[in-house]
Amino acid sequence: MSKPPKLNLASIVAASVPAARAVPQTAEIVQLDRGASPPKRGPATLKERARQMSVYLEPPVYDQLRDLAYAERTKMHAIMLEALDLLFKQRGARSIEQLSEPLQR
Fold this sequence. Notes:
Blueprint: H1 9-16, H2 46-49, H3 59-71, H4 76-90, H5 96-100
């Protein structure tokens, strides 16, 4: 017994189109406009601009941070940024606001 012939996409499409509506198989060449620049978007989101960093916290430290954020009705991320700002100030480095000034121009 011989193997059935292998089907290809062209034969499947040709079989599904009725004979009256069959379209001749011709290729169309499309020219792309290479001179156009991509459309400009607005300012990138924080997720697109920033770099991600993982922080491993012991469960009691994490719980306390979460509790502070809940009590202050803010996010843990905002408290972490505040802590980093205080660390930068303590070490004599520029603040987060000073570091982000060139991005806002």
